Amino acid sequence: MRRLLAPIALMSRHVSSSARITGRINEKVRTGHPAADLAFLQHALWGLDHYPDYLRRWQDKDVQNLESALEGVLAKVRAQRADARRECDAMAAKHPKALDALRDAANWRVDDVVSPRVAKALGWQPGASIAAALRQPPKTNGFWGLLQEPEDDVYSLDLFRPEFCAAIIAASDAAAEDDGHPRPRANLDVLGVGWLADLLLIVAEQVAAAAWPRETLVDAAGARAPLDWRHAYVLRYAPSGRDSLVPHTDDSEVTVNVGLVARQSFEGGDLLLGGVRGQEDSECAITPDLGVAAFHLGRRLHAVDKVLEGERRVLICWCRSMNGVRSRVCPCCWMNRRDGGEARDCVCGDAWNS
User: Fold this and answer.
1) What residues contact 7, with CB distance under 8 A and at least 6 apart?
2) Is the pLDDT of residue 2 over 50?
3) Which segments within 201-311 are labelled E, that is strand?
4) Which domains does the chain have, with CATH numbers?
5) Distances from the Cα of 173 to the Cαs of 98, 169, 185, 213, 318, in angstroms?
6) Which of these, 115, 132, 259, 284, is most buried using a 10 Å CB contact count?
7) pLDDT tens digits for 63-78?
8) 109: how many CB neighbours lie within 10 A of its CB?
9) Burial class of 111 by CB neighbour count within 10 A (0 to 12, 13 to 18, 19+)
10) Pairing assessment for the beta strands 284-286 and 148-151 based on DSSP bridges
11) 183 pLDDT band (50/70/90 cuts)?
């Protein structure tokens, strides 16, 4: 049963699939064949965890194959870490005025950043700096009354002030590539604006606690595990570049999608939402708007319809519970939401480890 929620300026409509969507997500090319190497590693790691002296059962050539596979994965981890550090170091050496203005949370007051109702719900004083507000524990109730449910199990609220949205865009554009074009994907941690990702995690945690209290799982005493990890970035969609995004799910428990421009500034570009993995399918669309944050489960299928005119600018944040659901079930049970997410018989769960 849907509860009555506060009104907000965020439109939705039911839609059918769009043939116009062409923008690919950042994932491997699917061949239609099983991921044999991944399965091999997962079986080996489970055996090493579960059985003492597990590899004494293997032939030496098989152990050598396992070593090579693990070394290959470690080399990939080290290469990607090195690339990420180089990117962060290179960006830290740049000091465009608009980006530096956003980097220091002490430069921003609470009432310059978030809406008054959000500030009140978090227990933040309007004249305080965001840096000080982020250091204090947020209030843990009062968010349900701020939420609208534009579609079943999708929630939204007025989050950011319009001027602050403009500052986010200016900072992202200031971090342009050498050819002068805005970065299509500006990672807030790379830009040196990690405090904004922290703020989004705090808000997402309050929304998740109110809307999806069991999504992150609970312990034996019934205590809910919080969202405790985040990855946030700015995206630009326009006819001249990335104009759409194919249907996909996110590697998150909860995804936050904040509109950074007014709805009238672009045509098309709706957020198309399907069903959640493991549940009955559904289909609807939500139109992003300035300063409004939409929240949906990361396992919910979604896409971005083609932008026909103007620029669609959004701030996205993936939020996970690394010490909750991701410490208790394997990726397969998590993705397919087995047993409602509990999956006690998962090899990572209680049944196999008690």
Assistant:
1) 148
2) no
3) 229-237, 245-248, 254-259, 266-268, 271-276, 284-286, 292-297, 300-304, 307-310
4) 12-21+97-321 (2.60.120.620), 324-354 (no CATH)
5) 9, 6, 10, 37, 22
6) 259
7) 999 999 999 999 999 9
8) 18
9) middle
10) unpaired
11) low
